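Please decode residue identities from the backbone states below.
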């Protein structure tokens, strides 16, 4: 089905959602992946300590991001890739909090993106023992990817949404949300930030 959206995934240096250290982006047009990219990010000052547990999850070390663009320097790159798309993420509350908190930490204006959660969607579409990204992506027919590599995770998320849209015959993210009793939300840049549970 011809759904258009951008899937996004962040990795963080530590337990704060302000500590973005990598991003992955996948553009979908008419239900097909047409572009994908990702890069390392130097986390905002004060949020740039790398915890061992995070390094163990994604394999990114402080020296890997030493020469990377800062959050402020690369924010326009995210905006240029995503344009006016709905952003889709697996456990979207986490990824949207990264956008908000990293912008807050760097003094940048957070774009008021509309967003949709593939984790919530997977819970409506599939019968699974767990809805973590690898299992949900496998149910969508996407099995061979490196979990916690940001671009690979964004691609897995995109496949969940494309599969669900095809099953529902949905022609847009809004129609897909409606078909499953879900909502496309908007980042509320004025609301207090509550640190969410770590990404799925």
């Amino acid at each position: 089905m011809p759904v258009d959206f951008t899937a996004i995934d962040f990795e963080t240096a530590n337990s704060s959602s302000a500590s973005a250290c990598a991003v992955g982006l996948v553009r979908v047009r008419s239900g097909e992946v047409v572009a994908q990219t990702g890069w390392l990010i130097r986390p905002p000052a004060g949020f740039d300590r790398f915890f061992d547990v995070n390094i163990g999850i994604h394999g990114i070390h402080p020296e890997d991001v030493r020469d990377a663009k800062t959050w402020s320097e690369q924010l326009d790159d995210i905006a240029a890739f995503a344009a006016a798309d709905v952003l889709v993420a697996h456990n979207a509350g986490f990824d949207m909090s990264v956008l908000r908190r990293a912008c807050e930490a760097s003094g940048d204006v957070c774009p008021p993106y509309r967003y949709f959660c593939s984790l919530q969607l997977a819970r409506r579409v599939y019968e699974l023992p767990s809805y973590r990204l690898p299992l949900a992506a496998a149910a969508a027919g996407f099995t061979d990817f490196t979990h916690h590599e940001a671009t690979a995770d964004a691609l897995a998320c995109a496949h969940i949404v494309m599969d669900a849209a095809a099953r529902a015959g949905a022609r847009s993210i809004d129609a897909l949300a409606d078909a499953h009793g879900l909502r496309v939300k908007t980042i509320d840049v004025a609301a207090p930030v509550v640190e969410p549970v770590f990404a799925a």
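Observation: The CA atoms of residues 149 and 179 lie 30 Å apart.
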